[in-house]
Structures are given as structure tokens and as C-alpha cells.
Write a structure and sequence with these properties.
Chain lengths: 304, 308
């Protein structure tokens, strides 16, 4: 908060350190701690410290102990807390490494799509005219191809890989940034401070990067946060269908798919990775909602 | 209005051409298609013959126009994996997909509109909060996971419903339910649209006039609010297209979605292309239709000058 001075009901300006501290605490208590901690526990900490936390190698399995039950069932052991899958690989270790895949893929895809989408949005809003038309037609074409079908074409040509999965997700998501950033740029373009920057001789590139971009940064951050959940669901869906992350890489979507045929004997193989996706996306979405309300209330209508 | 429709159709055409160019070049730019058609032992003479037979020795632009001509004749090339052409395969599978998608849309759309109205009218009731919680949770749940949980509970554990396949009405329950879930987003949209209407002046007037509450809700507010979910319809239907691939794969439903995955696993790219083009054409037509319908249904837009 840039403006520290605050008028209380009595009209006295309070800016004492104690008041500041109280305000800071109040701000923190508004934070949905529960969502952030779920995120940390399910996604971030396992992803960062995977080799340290994981009790076993996620790729190495012992076929003699395949489909072992979790520890709370009869026959389960503390060695494999959540049991093992059809190849005898430790489920907990695979889940932990799976969060690494989810985090890596979603962050990379997000970075690519946000960069491309923002650039196009800035250009579209700034130049207008034929540039705008061209970019809008690109958006049309993009939204005419169903994401999964595009993924299918890609995979039928290149075969599944992490790189292809990231590209598909990035291609699928850039247009949302373009639409929002274009609208914001249009609104900013005719403002006085832009005209002044122009008069003082700033180049277009400089105006876009130094003057417009910082003003759309809040929108960008909020939209990106809200998109992480979409990315993770899309990635896991593609992986589930066999056109995302290839086996044997432990992606949560692949793990659900692996467990599908063992529902009757070992439900945990399919259900637990899905729970990982669910809690991650749920807390991401709720955290994003909170962020939106605090950073950029304009976006309130954006969520579908 | 007419001008708007023409411009919209023109944009649709551009999008269609763009999609075909994307699909065409994706397939052609990834190396010589000859490599797919020839084996290791084939010599240069066979290669020349095959490339002439398939028109691969022509300039790319000419190949594209031949390709487009074939598309308009419904000719997508033979399937490598199945003993039929891509077009025949799709024709056979289409009714199954339409049955599933149609049922899902027919059930979920009216239902979520109604529930949207009810939650808006009974705002801040436990019913409203329940709806909100479910919507938030639904957004975080992958379709395929819900489908698998449902199979686990109702088919494997309880044994009430079949796990997969096509058959009687009981085979339809789970797939249709899962397919219908994403469109529950309409509920939230309808709720906020309805709340906007209920807070407006003309509703106040209607109340002062002494109209019965049901008339105010259904005859005045609902009609105006229903425009908003209408634009959402194209999103819902495109999620049906995507959803049907997931649902048909999980429930082994012999439709186009399952065909798509089978074609992928067999690297049957004629079929994949045909399906991608069909899906795109469906989406383009839907986008145009909803845009036009939206303008048509909103007199404020209809009677003012529309800019493209």
C-alpha cells in the first residue's frame, strides 16, 4: 500500500508503527492461509524437494510386490505408505515426482502463453487497424480448433513428449491474455501520461514496455494465477488420454489412467493422483480468486 | 443486422481457411510424407511413382487446393488402421456421439438455467451456498477423475450400473452425467445475470404494480437474463466436443471421441485430420450462430448500429 496515512472515524490521521503492524496483520489474516498451505504441501514442497522426500525411485518397481495396499489396509507396510502400482512402483514417490511434472509443465506453458498473448494483446491494442484485425483473426482461428483435437494432430505427427505437451497447452491458452491486455491497452492508449511520454520522445517500444506493461501487470498476474489450475487440468487430461506426458514419467494424469483397470483390486492407484490434481487446482483457484479481489477487481467477470 | 451477419460469416470463412491451412501445413511440414508411405526397401523409381500417384511432386499451393477440393467432397483419405475410409468411419460413429452429447445438453442446459434462477431468487440461502461450493469444487475436478470415481462407486463397488460399453439405458447414465457436468458453469452465469435483472428498476416497478412474484421472475427477469447464458452455449458445446473424447474413452463408447484416440494410437493421421477438421467446423458454425443469436435476442443491439 503506497498511501500509509489513514483516516480513522474520528478524522485523526494514524500512521503509527503499531497501527501499521495491525494493518499488516489484518492484511495477512485476509489471506486464505489454508489454500496456500495446501498448495505448499501438495504441489510446491514435493516438487522442489522430490529427491529428498520420496522414499523410493519413481521409475524402479519391484514386480513381486505389485498392487500392494496402503499402510492402513491389511497387508500394507510402512515401506510403501500408499502402496504400489501395477509394476510395483511406490505410489507415494510417483505422486511426489508427479507434482514436479505438474509444476514444471504448468509454469513453462504459462510463461510461454502469457508472453505470446501479452505481446499480441499490446500490439493489437496499441496499433489497432490491420494489426488488430490480423491478430483478432488469429484468435478466431485458434478458438475454432478444439484443444484436444489439436493435441491429437500434434501427437499423431510428432509423438508424445513433454515439449509437445507444453507447446499444445501454450497454444491453447494465449488468446485469453491477448483479449484482456488488448482491452486494457486500448483504455490506456489515449491517457495523458502516454501522450506526455510520446511528447518527450519515448519510442513505441519504450512506451509499451515501460508505461503500458506496468499498468497491466496486475491484470496479468491475476489472470496467470487463475490460469494455473486450467493448465494443470488440461495437462492431466492430455496425459490421461495418452497425448500429453509420455510414460513412464510420473504425471498425475498418466497415473490415473494406469490405475483405471485396477479399480476393483486397487482403487488407490487411480483415485489418489486425481485427488492430488483436485486439491492443487482447488486451492490455486481459490487463491487466485482472493488475489483477484485484492489486486484487480475489474477481472471479477473473467472467470467462467 | 444483415451487414453484421455478412461480416460474421466472412470471419467464419477466414477462420475455416485458417484451420485448414494449419492442419494441412502441420501434416506437410513435418518432413516428406513419402517417408510414411514407403518402406525401407523401396527404390527411387517406386518413390517417384508413389509421389506422382499422390500428387506429392506438385507445388505445395497446388497440393493445398487439391486437398481442399477433396475435403469439400467429403474425402479425407483412407484409414490405415481400419478397413474403411475416414469419412465412412466418421459417418458410422457420429450418431453415437450425437446421442451422448445431445442427451447431456438436453438435460444439463435447462436444468442449470432453472437452478441458476432459483439460486438467484433464494440468494444467500443454504441452497445458494451449496450451489456455490459445488461450482467451485466442480471447477477443480478433472472430468476423467470424476468418471473413474463414479465407475468405482456405482459400477465396481455397488454394481448398480455397467462399467462401460454401449447397450441399454443403464449404459447411458454415467457417461451422460459426466458429460453434462462442465455445463453446470451455466448455473453460476445464470445466477449472476438473474441477480442483475432482479436488482433493476423495472423489476421494482413490476413489484409496485403488484404483479405476482412468479410472473416477475419468469416473465420479466428470466427473459432478459437468459441472453447471458446464451453466449455461453458455444463454450458449453465446445466443452462437449472435448468432453466426449474423454468420456467415450473411459466408458468405451463407440463414438467419434473414442475413434480419435484409437486413431492416435494407430498413427492413423487421415482419420485424426478428418476429426479435427470436423470438430473445428462445428465450433466455427456454433460461434457464428451464437453471435448472431445474441444480437438477434438483444433488442438494444439489434436496433442500434452494429460495428464489427
Amino acid at each position: 500500500m503506497a498511501i500509509d496515512a489513514e483516516l480513522t472515524q474520528e478524522g485523526i490521521i494514524t500512521n503509527s508503527p503499531i497501527k501499521k503492524l495491525q494493518k499488516f496483520y489484518k492484511g495477512l489474516s485476509g489471506l486464505p492461509w489454508i489454500w496456500v498451505s495446501i498448495l505448499l504441501v501438495v504441489l510446491v514442497i514435493p516438487a522442489v524437494f522430490a529427491p529428498l522426500i520420496a522414499p523410493h525411485d519413481p521409475y524402479e518397481g519391484d514386480i513381486s510386490i505389485r498392487l500392494a495396499p496402503p499402510v492402513w489396509y491389511e497387508g500394507g507396510s510402512w515401506d510403501h505408505i500408499l502402496g504400489t502400482d501395477r509394476l510395483g512402483r511406490d505410489l507415494l514417490s510417483r505422486l511426489i515426482y508427479g507434482s514436479r511434472i505438474a509444476l514444471f509443465v504448468s509454469m513453462t506453458a504459462l510463461l510461454v502463453s502469457a508472453t505470446v498473448g501479452t505481446t499480441l494483446g499490446l500490439l493489437s491494442g496499441w496499433y489497432g487497424g490491420w494489426v488488430d484485425h490480423l491478430i483478432q483473426r488469429l484468435v478466431d482461428i485458434k478458438s475454432s480448433i478444439p484443444a484436444i483435437l489439436l493435441a491429437l494432430i500434434f501427437v499423431s505427427i510428432f509423438g508424445p513428449s513433454i515439449f509437445i505437451a507444453i507447446s499444445i497447452i501454450a497454444i491453447f491458452l494465449w488468446n485469453r491474455y491477448t483479449r484482456l491486455i488488448r482491452a486494457e491497452t486500448l483504455a490506456l492508449r489515449n491517457m495523458d501520461f502516454i501522450a506526455r511520454a510520446r511528447v518527450s520522445g519515448a519510442s513505441t517500444t519504450r512506451i509499451l514496455i515501460k508505461h503500458i506493461l506496468p499498468n497491466v501487470a496486475n491484470t496479468l498476474i491475476v489472470l496467470a494465477t487463475l490460469e494455473v489450475g486450467t493448465v494443470i487440468i488440461l495437462e492431466s487430461t492430455l496425459s490421461f488420454l495418452g497425448v500429453g506426458i509420455p510414460r513412464p514419467i510420473p504425471s498425475w494424469g498418466v497415473m490415473v489412467s494406469d490405475g483405471r483397470n485396477y479399480l476393483a483390486v486397487a482403487w488407490w492407484i487411480a483415485i489418489l493422483p486425481g485427488a492430488g490434481i483436485f486439491f492443487t487446482v482447488l486451492s490455486l483457484n481459490l487463491f487466485g480468486d482472493w488475489l483477484r479481489d485484492h489486486l484487480d477487481p475489474k477481472l471479477r467477470q473473467v472467470r467462467r | 443486422m444483415q451487414r453484421y451477419i455478412i461480416i460474421r460469416l466472412f470471419h467464419g470463412l477466414i477462420a475455416f481457411i485458417g484451420v485448414t491451412v494449419v492442419v494441412f501445413s502441420l501434416v506437410r511440414l513435418t518432413g516428406n510424407p513419402l517417408d510414411n508411405l514407403l518402406g525401407e526397401e523401396d527404390d527411387a523409381e517406386t518413390a517417384a511413382y508413389v509421389s506422382e500417384l499422390w500428387g506429392l511432386d506438385r507445388p505445395l499451393a497446388e497440393q493445398y487446393f487439391t486437398y481442399m477440393g477433396n475435403i469439400f467432397q467429403g474425402e479425407f483419405g483412407p484409414s490405415f488402421a481400419f478397413d474403411a475410409s475416414a469419412a465412412e468411419l466418421i459417418k458410422k460413429r457420429l450418431p453415437n456421439t450425437l446421442l451422448l452429447g445431445g442427451l447431456a445438453a438436453a438435460i444439463s442446459f435447462p436444468l442449470s438455467l432453472m437452478l441458476g434462477v432459483v439460486t438467484a431468487v433464494k440468494r444467500d440461502s443454504p441452497f445458494d451456498y451449496g450451489g456455490k461450493t459445488l461450482a467451485v469444487m466442480g471447477q477443480a475436478t478433472p472430468d476423467f477423475w470424476i468418471a473413474i470415481i463414479l465407475i468405482w462407486v456405482f459400477a465396481v463397488t455397488l454394481g448398480w450400473l455397467p462399467t462401460s460399453g454401449k447397450g441399454g439405458a443403464s449404459h447411458l447414465v454415467l457417461p451422460v452425467f459426466v458429460l453434462a457436468l462442465p455445463s453446470a458453469g451455466t448455473l453460476r452465469l445464470m445466477r449472476s445475470a438473474m441477480m442483475n435483472q432482479l436488482d433493476s428498476e423495472y423489476i421494482k416497478l413490476a413489484r409496485i404494480k403488484g404483479l405476482p412474484e412468479w410472473k416477475i421472475i419468469w416473465k420479466h427477469a428470466f427473459r432478459n437474463a437468459a441472453i447471458v447464458p446464451l453466449t455461453f452455449a458455444s463454450v458449453v458445446i465446445s466443452s462437449l466436443v472435448t468432453g466426449s473424447i474423454v468420456v467415450e474413452t473411459i466408458f468405451a463408447w463407440p463414438g467419434m471421441g473414442q475413434l480419435a484416440i484409437q486413431a492416435i494410437n494407430a498413427r492413423d493421421y487421415h482419420v485424426v485430420q478428418a476429426l479435427a477438421l470436423m470438430g473445428s467446423v462445428i465450433l466455427i458454425i456454433l460461434h457464428i450462430l451464437t453471435d448472431i443469436l445474441y444480437v438477434y435476442c438483444d433488442p438494444r443491439i439489434r436496433f442500434t448500429k452494429i460495428q464489427s
